[in-house]
Design a protein that fits this description.
Number of strands: 11
CATH class: Mainly Beta
Distance between the termini: 34 Å
Number of domains: 1
Structural class: mainly beta
Radius of gyration: 20 Å
Shape: globular
Strand order of the largest sheet: 2-3-11-6-8
CATH topology: Deoxyuridine 5'-Triphosphate Nucleotidohydrolase, Chain A
CATH superfamily: Deoxyuridine triphosphatase (dUTPase)
Number of helices: 1
Length: 159
C-alpha cells in the first residue's frame, strides 16, 4: 500500500511484551526501504540447535494485526548463508485473528551446532495485505478459461 507520493503507508499494530520479552527491542526495519522487520529471540538461556534439529523460538510479545493483514515470518538470509539456519515452514503466516505469542520455527541445515542467544535477530517479519478468494464452481474442466500453458505441469515451461 502506498500513498500519493509513492511512499509506503504505515498501519498501527498493537504490541504487548510478555514477561520473558521485556527489555528486547520491538521488531524493527534495519534500513529505510527494508520490507521486513527483524525479530529477536526471547530466550533466557542459550538454545543449542544441533544439525537437523528444529525448535520454536519465542519472540516475547503478542500483537494484534488489523483485519485484512497478515504477518509473514521469513528466514534471515545471513543466517541461512553463514550457518545453514532456515525455517521449515517459510514463510510462516500469522493471521490477523491470532493473539498468541509470536514464535519462529528454526531448523539447522548446517553441519555444526548453532547457538541462539537472547536478543539475537533470528527472522524477519513482513506485514502484507490479504486478498480473500471465493470459489466459483464449474461442471467440467473445459469450462476453465484457456491459457497458452494449459494443463502443462512440473517442468512444462522449460529448464
Amino acid at each position: 500500500m502506498t500513498d500519493r507520493a509513492g511512499e509506503s503507508a504505515e498501519i498501527a499494530i498493537e504490541l504487548c511484551w510478555l514477561p520473558h520479552g521485556k527489555g528486547l527491542e520491538a521488531p524493527a526495519y534495519q534500513t529505510p526501504h527494508a520490507a521486513g522487520m527483524d525479530l529477536q529471540a526471547a530466550v533466557n538461556e542459550p538454545v543449542v540447535l544441533q544439525p537437523l534439529d528444529r525448535r520454536a523460538i519465542a519472540c516475547g510479545f503478542v500483537m494484534a494485526l488489523p483485519a485484512g493483514y497478515e504477518a509473514q515470518i521469513r528466514a534471515r538470509s545471513g543466517l541461512a548463508l553463514k550457518h545453514g539456519i532456515g525455517m521449515p515452514n517459510s514463510p510462516g503466516t500469522i493471521d490477523a485473528d491470532y493473539r498468541g505469542e509470536v514464535m519462529v520455527i528454526l531448523i539447522n541445515f548446517g553441519r555444526e551446532p548453532f547457538i541462539i542467544t537472547r536478543g539475537m535477530r533470528i527472522a524477519q517479519m513482513v506485514i502484507a495485505p490479504v486478498t480473500r478468494a471465493r470459489w466459483k464452481p464449474l461442471d467440467e474442466p473445459h469450462q476453465l478459461s484457456e491459457t497458452a500453458r494449459g494443463a502443462g505441469g512440473f517442468g512444462s515451461t522449460g529448464h
